[in-house]
Predict the structure of WD repeat-containing protein 82.
Amino acid sequence: MKLTDSVLRSFRVAKVFRENSDKINCFDFSPNGETVISSSDDDSIVLYDCQEGKPKRTLYSKKYGVDLIRYTHAANTVVYSSNKIDDTIRYLSLHDNKYIRYFPGHSKRVVALSMSPVDDTFISGSLDKTIRLWDLRSPNCQGLMHLQGKPVCSFDPEGLIFAAGVNSEMVKLYDLRSFDKGPFATFKMQYDRTCEWTGLKFSNDGKLILISTNGSFIRLIDAFKGVVMHTFGGYANSKAVTLEASFTPDSQFIMIGSEDGKIHVWNGESGIKVAVLDGKHTGPITCLQFNPKFMTFASACSNMLRKERACLRSPGGLAVRLGYADPHLPDSIPFLPYHWTTVVEGLLVAHH
């Protein structure tokens, strides 16, 4: 089914999981869209089956804590940052719950982690004002960049370049093969002293870059020219919470949560807000991602949900994600056998 304004407006909450005792700080869909994995401030890692619509396994990282969890290219391995003892990045096998490798080097908390979409390379950004380049096969840092401020960073969808947002005022583009020569392009943005940049993402078509902030607006820029195409606002974030913004897989829509539990959706081309969805969260929606393969998205709030939630199903098992699907529309995005939407103590996963 093709994503349209009306399809996006039809999403409704359908199911809730209560697997955590503290907030979910991050989650990530597997590249094939079949599972989603979450990390929490309660030191747990929870793996969910998107086809069955239920949790599969819970692991713990009690000693080091867990944040910024990311799938590698193998469905049973992840990397994540620590939020307790040190600032080492860890490479974990989900199969036997054993560490494969450690990646030491950062001297302050890691605030950005991005896996290459094509190989075993990943990058990390830290409050120590550096970005480090890594290879899963080696514990040694493959490259180091010193910056002038807190970084946010991400690979482009082809894995050839990566972008670094620095000091909440400029975006620098680096060629992975020659990053030591410096950025090949730098886009200076108008500095806004009222907020900080908290995230940076490329659209799947590689044409757009989305900049998240801890204010009440996000920016969409042209990835080639650095021109600000749209500034999206009109959502609540009075407490300067870090809210994750995301593209839909077709690169056409932009989504972000808000402190009042609502999810706002804009058309990336027109800049028009096309939907405001009631995520039924009791706190700010800090994590939000669309499934890369299926008509599903997930959201998580910073305050854990303490009450039970109803599991809603459409007649005949049809499309329930964060909403209902029209079964008469032509399919271009596959459905899952079980259509569900989840808020895991703040994690909401939506299906169509």
